[in-house]
Design goal:
single chain, 237 residues, alpha+beta
Protein backbone atom coordinates (compact mmCIF):
# COMPACT_ATOMS: atom_id res chain seq x y z
CA UNK A 1 0.00 0.00 0.00
CA UNK A 2 1.46 3.34 -1.07
CA UNK A 3 1.11 6.30 1.26
CA UNK A 4 1.21 9.93 0.24
CA UNK A 5 4.35 11.59 1.66
CA UNK A 6 2.49 14.46 3.25
CA UNK A 7 2.02 16.61 5.24
CA UNK A 8 5.53 17.95 4.97
CA UNK A 9 7.00 19.61 8.05
CA UNK A 10 6.34 23.33 7.94
CA UNK A 11 9.44 24.75 6.24
CA UNK A 12 11.45 27.75 7.37
CA UNK A 13 10.16 30.42 5.02
CA UNK A 14 12.79 32.95 3.89
CA UNK A 15 12.08 36.61 4.61
CA UNK A 16 12.13 37.26 0.88
CA UNK A 17 8.74 35.54 0.69
CA UNK A 18 6.50 38.34 1.94
CA UNK A 19 3.17 36.72 1.16
CA UNK A 20 0.52 36.69 3.83
CA UNK A 21 -2.22 34.14 4.29
CA UNK A 22 -3.74 35.50 7.47
CA UNK A 23 -6.21 33.46 9.45
CA UNK A 24 -8.12 35.91 11.66
CA UNK A 25 -9.75 35.11 14.99
CA UNK A 26 -12.16 37.61 16.49
CA UNK A 27 -13.48 37.86 20.03
CA UNK A 28 -15.78 40.39 21.64
CA UNK A 29 -17.25 40.77 25.10
CA UNK A 30 -20.35 42.92 25.44
CA UNK A 31 -22.33 44.04 28.46
CA UNK A 32 -25.98 44.96 28.22
CA UNK A 33 -29.23 45.07 30.17
CA UNK A 34 -30.96 42.97 27.44
CA UNK A 35 -28.83 39.86 27.00
CA UNK A 36 -31.30 37.83 24.97
CA UNK A 37 -32.20 40.72 22.70
CA UNK A 38 -28.54 41.53 22.02
CA UNK A 39 -27.73 37.87 21.40
CA UNK A 40 -30.47 37.76 18.77
CA UNK A 41 -29.18 40.93 17.11
CA UNK A 42 -25.65 39.49 16.95
CA UNK A 43 -27.00 36.39 15.20
CA UNK A 44 -28.91 38.55 12.72
CA UNK A 45 -25.81 40.58 11.89
CA UNK A 46 -23.72 37.43 11.37
CA UNK A 47 -26.23 36.03 8.90
CA UNK A 48 -26.64 39.43 7.25
CA UNK A 49 -23.00 39.30 6.21
CA UNK A 50 -23.32 35.80 4.73
CA UNK A 51 -21.90 34.32 7.91
CA UNK A 52 -22.70 31.15 9.80
CA UNK A 53 -23.76 30.74 13.41
CA UNK A 54 -21.97 27.71 14.84
CA UNK A 55 -23.15 27.92 18.42
CA UNK A 56 -25.57 30.09 20.38
CA UNK A 57 -26.84 30.28 23.90
CA UNK A 58 -28.57 32.93 25.96
CA UNK A 59 -30.24 33.47 29.28
CA UNK A 60 -31.24 36.51 31.25
CA UNK A 61 -27.67 37.03 32.45
CA UNK A 62 -25.33 35.43 29.90
CA UNK A 63 -25.24 34.88 26.17
CA UNK A 64 -22.76 33.78 23.55
CA UNK A 65 -22.57 33.39 19.78
CA UNK A 66 -19.81 31.52 17.93
CA UNK A 67 -19.68 32.28 14.22
CA UNK A 68 -17.77 32.39 10.95
CA UNK A 69 -17.96 35.19 8.38
CA UNK A 70 -16.22 35.81 5.04
CA UNK A 71 -13.01 37.78 5.45
CA UNK A 72 -14.09 40.00 2.56
CA UNK A 73 -17.00 41.26 4.66
CA UNK A 74 -15.19 41.33 7.99
CA UNK A 75 -14.54 45.09 8.17
CA UNK A 76 -18.17 46.01 7.53
CA UNK A 77 -19.30 43.23 9.86
CA UNK A 78 -17.11 44.53 12.68
CA UNK A 79 -18.32 48.08 12.24
CA UNK A 80 -21.96 47.11 12.57
CA UNK A 81 -21.42 44.57 15.33
CA UNK A 82 -19.39 46.93 17.50
CA UNK A 83 -21.98 49.66 17.16
CA UNK A 84 -24.48 47.56 19.13
CA UNK A 85 -23.17 48.82 22.48
CA UNK A 86 -21.22 51.79 23.71
CA UNK A 87 -17.44 51.56 23.79
CA UNK A 88 -17.34 51.31 27.57
CA UNK A 89 -19.48 48.16 27.34
CA UNK A 90 -17.29 46.54 24.66
CA UNK A 91 -13.98 44.67 24.79
CA UNK A 92 -12.37 43.42 21.57
CA UNK A 93 -9.71 40.73 21.11
CA UNK A 94 -8.35 40.03 17.62
CA UNK A 95 -5.51 37.73 16.67
CA UNK A 96 -4.20 36.47 13.35
CA UNK A 97 -1.82 33.81 12.14
CA UNK A 98 0.04 33.77 8.85
CA UNK A 99 -0.35 30.32 7.31
CA UNK A 100 2.45 30.96 4.82
CA UNK A 101 4.56 28.04 6.01
CA UNK A 102 1.63 25.68 5.41
CA UNK A 103 1.12 27.21 1.97
CA UNK A 104 4.80 26.74 1.11
CA UNK A 105 4.63 23.13 2.31
CA UNK A 106 1.66 22.48 0.03
CA UNK A 107 3.49 24.11 -2.88
CA UNK A 108 6.49 21.83 -2.30
CA UNK A 109 4.21 18.81 -2.25
CA UNK A 110 2.64 19.93 -5.52
CA UNK A 111 6.04 20.22 -7.19
CA UNK A 112 6.99 16.74 -6.00
CA UNK A 113 3.66 15.25 -7.09
CA UNK A 114 3.98 16.88 -10.53
CA UNK A 115 7.56 15.62 -10.89
CA UNK A 116 6.58 12.11 -9.86
CA UNK A 117 3.68 12.02 -12.30
CA UNK A 118 5.89 13.21 -15.17
CA UNK A 119 8.52 10.57 -14.31
CA UNK A 120 5.93 7.79 -14.05
CA UNK A 121 4.47 8.73 -17.43
CA UNK A 122 7.95 8.76 -18.97
CA UNK A 123 8.70 5.32 -17.51
CA UNK A 124 5.42 3.99 -18.83
CA UNK A 125 6.21 5.23 -22.32
CA UNK A 126 9.62 3.56 -22.15
CA UNK A 127 7.93 0.27 -21.24
CA UNK A 128 5.52 0.63 -24.18
CA UNK A 129 8.31 1.51 -26.62
CA UNK A 130 10.52 -1.35 -25.45
CA UNK A 131 7.63 -3.81 -25.70
CA UNK A 132 6.72 -2.62 -29.18
CA UNK A 133 10.30 -3.06 -30.41
CA UNK A 134 10.69 -6.47 -28.77
CA UNK A 135 7.40 -7.78 -30.14
CA UNK A 136 8.25 -6.45 -33.59
CA UNK A 137 11.61 -8.23 -33.52
CA UNK A 138 10.17 -11.52 -32.24
CA UNK A 139 7.25 -11.43 -34.64
CA UNK A 140 9.66 -10.85 -37.53
CA UNK A 141 11.63 -13.96 -36.53
CA UNK A 142 8.42 -15.97 -36.16
CA UNK A 143 7.17 -14.86 -39.57
CA UNK A 144 10.49 -15.75 -41.19
CA UNK A 145 10.52 -19.17 -39.50
CA UNK A 146 6.99 -19.88 -40.73
CA UNK A 147 7.94 -18.78 -44.23
CA UNK A 148 11.07 -20.95 -44.21
CA UNK A 149 9.07 -23.95 -42.99
CA UNK A 150 6.55 -23.55 -45.79
CA UNK A 151 9.35 -23.42 -48.34
CA UNK A 152 11.16 -26.45 -46.88
CA UNK A 153 8.02 -28.57 -46.64
CA UNK A 154 7.32 -27.89 -50.28
CA UNK A 155 10.63 -29.53 -51.20
CA UNK A 156 11.35 -33.21 -51.56
CA UNK A 157 11.98 -34.68 -48.16
CA UNK A 158 15.60 -35.55 -47.48
CA UNK A 159 17.50 -36.10 -44.22
CA UNK A 160 19.01 -32.66 -44.62
CA UNK A 161 15.60 -31.04 -45.21
CA UNK A 162 14.15 -32.93 -42.26
CA UNK A 163 16.96 -31.71 -40.01
CA UNK A 164 16.43 -28.12 -41.16
CA UNK A 165 12.69 -28.37 -40.54
CA UNK A 166 13.33 -29.66 -37.01
CA UNK A 167 15.86 -26.94 -36.25
CA UNK A 168 13.59 -24.16 -37.53
CA UNK A 169 10.55 -25.67 -35.78
CA UNK A 170 12.43 -25.75 -32.48
CA UNK A 171 13.54 -22.15 -32.95
CA UNK A 172 9.98 -21.17 -33.87
CA UNK A 173 8.66 -22.71 -30.66
CA UNK A 174 11.38 -20.89 -28.70
CA UNK A 175 10.53 -17.53 -30.29
CA UNK A 176 6.84 -18.06 -29.50
CA UNK A 177 7.70 -18.77 -25.89
CA UNK A 178 9.74 -15.58 -25.78
CA UNK A 179 6.78 -13.69 -27.23
CA UNK A 180 4.40 -15.17 -24.66
CA UNK A 181 6.79 -14.26 -21.84
CA UNK A 182 7.23 -10.76 -23.22
CA UNK A 183 3.47 -10.22 -23.36
CA UNK A 184 3.03 -11.52 -19.81
CA UNK A 185 5.86 -9.34 -18.46
CA UNK A 186 4.53 -6.36 -20.37
CA UNK A 187 1.11 -6.80 -18.82
CA UNK A 188 2.62 -6.82 -15.33
CA UNK A 189 4.94 -3.88 -16.00
CA UNK A 190 2.14 -1.84 -17.54
CA UNK A 191 -0.15 -2.58 -14.60
CA UNK A 192 2.55 -1.42 -12.18
CA UNK A 193 3.22 1.71 -14.23
CA UNK A 194 -0.48 2.55 -14.37
CA UNK A 195 -0.72 2.08 -10.60
CA UNK A 196 2.15 4.50 -10.09
CA UNK A 197 0.50 7.05 -12.37
CA UNK A 198 -2.79 6.74 -10.52
CA UNK A 199 -0.95 7.14 -7.22
CA UNK A 200 0.68 10.36 -8.43
CA UNK A 201 -2.62 11.66 -9.81
CA UNK A 202 -4.36 10.90 -6.50
CA UNK A 203 -1.54 12.67 -4.69
CA UNK A 204 -2.03 15.70 -6.93
CA UNK A 205 -5.73 15.75 -6.10
CA UNK A 206 -4.97 15.43 -2.38
CA UNK A 207 -2.58 18.38 -2.56
CA UNK A 208 -5.16 20.42 -4.47
CA UNK A 209 -7.68 19.63 -1.74
CA UNK A 210 -5.20 20.75 0.92
CA UNK A 211 -4.60 24.00 -0.93
CA UNK A 212 -8.32 24.66 -1.39
CA UNK A 213 -8.95 23.94 2.29
CA UNK A 214 -6.19 26.31 3.39
CA UNK A 215 -7.42 29.15 1.16
CA UNK A 216 -10.99 28.64 2.35
CA UNK A 217 -9.74 28.69 5.94
CA UNK A 218 -7.90 31.97 5.35
CA UNK A 219 -10.97 33.43 3.65
CA UNK A 220 -13.04 32.75 6.78
CA UNK A 221 -12.92 34.74 9.99
CA UNK A 222 -13.96 32.71 13.00
CA UNK A 223 -14.98 34.30 16.24
CA UNK A 224 -17.28 34.56 19.19
CA UNK A 225 -19.22 37.18 21.07
CA UNK A 226 -19.91 36.74 24.76
CA UNK A 227 -22.63 38.84 26.34
CA UNK A 228 -23.03 39.61 30.01
CA UNK A 229 -26.03 41.16 31.66
CA UNK A 230 -25.64 44.27 33.81
CA UNK A 231 -28.01 46.08 36.15
CA UNK A 232 -29.47 49.52 35.55
CA UNK A 233 -27.14 50.90 38.21
CA UNK A 234 -24.08 49.42 36.43
CA UNK A 235 -25.17 50.89 33.11
CA UNK A 236 -25.61 54.31 34.69
CA UNK A 237 -22.27 54.07 36.41
Amino acid sequence: MMLYPYPYPNPEVPISDAREFLKIYYGAQMRTRDVQGLTSRVETIVRGYEGRVDNQSSSSKYGSVSFAVPQSKFSAFREELESLVGKRFLTINISSQNLLSQKVSIEEQKKQADTNLANYKTERQKIVNSHTNTVSSLQSKIDKANSDLIALRAQTETPQITAQIKRISDDLAYQKRLLDNENANYKNQLSSADSNIKYAQDWQKAVQTQDKTLLENVATVTGSVSIQGISLWESVQ
